[in-house]
């Protein structure tokens, strides 16, 4: 614990001033022979929260999972196109798979803290899992929990098992866990769908506080949430027996108030099958 | 919710004005229907069973005692009483509650009988071992060996300390060999899912049915016959490990399957290499279940006689070194004693059997406790570790 070899930890401890720029270029995805996503071009800028919306099954999660190479965990999954992180292809030879996933964190729909670990160990799990050391573990835990807006609720029971937290707290713990490895981008797949309005509000506040430090991409079915937290918005749609496509994207305000495509207007106004 | 339906319904709508006196708001409060437990046994049920049993017993006595001219074995009484009980009980219930209820009760009785038949042998075996064993089990059984005990000594003389030590050492060694291999195989089957997973699982499944004597023969012919190692505890452990391996592997694989996939994804999404996510997330999450798998494996082999018969040699003197010289163990102790023609030695074997039974029972109970108390264990253990780390971290700020 007192190992002083901490050359790279300085970077790990200090929160990056600004997140990374993530760009999907002509991304298409297949599960086996079935194409579920076609030609998606989205630029997710630093300092901007990007919302992905669309009806169920149109490929939002699939797209999100291509952004940190989780897509390939499904054995039959394939893809085309490229994903650029600050201009470098994350599927290229230059970047290691584990490094890509560390720099592009992910928060899942269902809160999934590690049940065999304490709250503090959960936050610091990313360090152990990536084999890194930091000078001051306790401080990293505190900063990460503060950034996730959970510190005040758990400061007195850091040694308690993570399973004892409420659903909303668990989800914020997962956010803290992702932040502890200092990612440049944070992907969130319906992070509030299992939560009550108060926890949802709390996580939305967290997103807004984080957005200047980390690039955030969020999938949501909640139109109000998309309007509240995002500045950029992409609408996905899959016609019957066809792969999903991005029908329209642009500033959130414009998508919701003055969409160009009638299908977008139907969807954001709730007039959709 | 549904129970007071009939009493509550008239209140708002009062279709018939059935109970004009209790119409106001205070009405339903006054006469709360009695709480019922729909599935509980009632006295009438017991009375029906008792009546039917009494009738069938009486009928049996009449048939065997008065009508038949010869005597029969007592078991025939029980059998006939049971056979007569079924139709009598059926008629009783059908009269009171209809044919459907009667059928239901009859099937219940049959199923309960089946369960009893499955349970009875265990009770008999355990009961018999306890009875015979307790007769000769004395404290010196745990402190003495058979070194100076002659064939004509009393059954309460001598002891099995050398066998108990042997059993513990051989079990520990077998565990040390089989558990790492079994866990690695389970990880391969469930986490890596390599191309060999299917055949390996098939072989492991088949190996659970491996006759234990074959394991003993195998080790005998490849270790002892070519003089690689002479008969000793460790060679017996090898044979036991072969038997333990498939049990541990299959149990551990099933445990690993239950670990939610979301946890693996969460670990990978943090940038973990696959091996670290398995080592630090999957295995610790499944810790309780894996412990159970290990204990089940131990319980599987601790009572095996055939594999150690050819491999450990067996002895009556104390040998604490499992790596050289003949060693005894409990199943072997029982085996050698019970084969004797002397009554006293046969009696002594039952004491050994009782101790062995206690060991197996202990292992199974341990497996249940470890397997079921996982949240409590976590609450007990992890915070303490964490607490000590926090204090030590706080203690040296350097
Ligand atoms: N592991 C898989 N194997 C095969 N097909 C899959 C797999 N995962 C997703 N799909 C298919 O890919 C398509 C897109 O799924 P995806 O999960 O990306 O939808 P989504 O937009 O996230 O939907 P939701 O809003 O319900 O989460 C769906 O038609 C789905 O059936
Ligand atoms: Mg989804």
TrEMBL record, chain A:
Record InterPro entries: AAA+_ATPase (IPR003593), ABC_transporter-like_ATP-bd (IPR003439), ABC_transporter-like_CS (IPR017871), P-loop_NTPase (IPR027417), PstB-like (IPR005670)
SMART domains: AAA
Stored CDD domains: ABC_PstB_phosphate_transporter (cd03260)
Protein name: Phosphate import ATP-binding protein PstB
Residue ranges annotated for the ABC transporter domain, each copy included: 22-268
Keywords, ordered alphabetically: ATP-binding, Nucleotide-binding, Translocase, Transport
PANTHER family linked: ABC TRANSPORTER I FAMILY MEMBER 17 (PTHR43423)
GO MF term list: ATP binding; ATP hydrolysis activity; phosphate transmembrane transporter activity
GO biological process: phosphate ion transmembrane transport
GO cellular component, one term: membrane
A Pfam family it matches: ABC_tran
TrEMBL record, chain B:
Major site of localization recorded for this protein: membrane
PANTHER family hit by this protein: PHOSPHATE TRANSPORT SYSTEM PERMEASE PROTEIN PSTA
Name under which the protein is recorded: Phosphate transport system permease protein PstA
InterPro entries: MetI-like, MetI-like_sf, Phosphate_PstA, Phosphate_transprt_permease
Similarity annotation: Belongs to the binding-protein-dependent transport system permease family. CysTW subfamily.
Source organism of the structure: Planotetraspora phitsanulokensis
Annotated region (Disordered), positions in chain: 1-37, 378-398
UniProt xrefs under NCBIfam families: 3a0107s02c
Record flagged with keyword Transport: yes
Transmembrane segments: 46-68, 74-93, 105-130, 171-190, 202-224, 230-252, 273-299, 349-371
One Gene Ontology term, aspect cellular component: plasma membrane
One protein family per Pfam: BPD_transp_1
Coiled coil: none
GO molecular function: phosphate transmembrane transporter activity
Family annotation (SUPFAM superfamilies): MetI-like
Subcellular location: Cell membrane
Compositionally biased region (Basic residues): 378-388
Function text: Part of the binding-protein-dependent transport system for phosphate; probably responsible for the translocation of the substrate across the membrane.
Record-annotated ABC transmembrane type-1 domain positions: 164-367
Membrane topology: Multi-pass membrane protein
